[in-house]
Write a structure and sequence with these properties.
This protein has 83 residues and is of the alpha/beta class.
């Protein structure tokens, strides 16, 4: 996991609940931080969803949206627990 956008760290420091668009590709939803496996335009957090999201503290996320990505996660139960 790698935080690419320094605004994510700023929001974490200020305890602002993050809004994540998981599997965003190059176009995260407006108002959401983009999370994807590949570092590309639009991605604020690069993360392998098969591994823990260890740089995000517990209870730091207020909303999660995801479209057409969860079906690609082979071990989905740990990711659901993480969410």
């Amino acid at each position: 996991m790698k935080i690419l956008n320094p605004r994510v760290l700023e929001d974490l420091e200020r305890a602002v609940p993050l809004k994540l668009d998981v599997g965003c590709g190059e176009r995260p939803s407006p108002g959401y931080y983009g999370v994807d496996l590949v570092e590309m335009n639009g991605v604020d957090i690069a993360a392998d969803l098969n591994k823990p999201l260890d740089l995000l503290p517990d209870n730091s996320v207020g909303a999660i949206i995801s479209r057409h990505v969860l079906e690609h996660i082979p071990n989905l139960v740990p990711l659901h627990a993480e969410f």
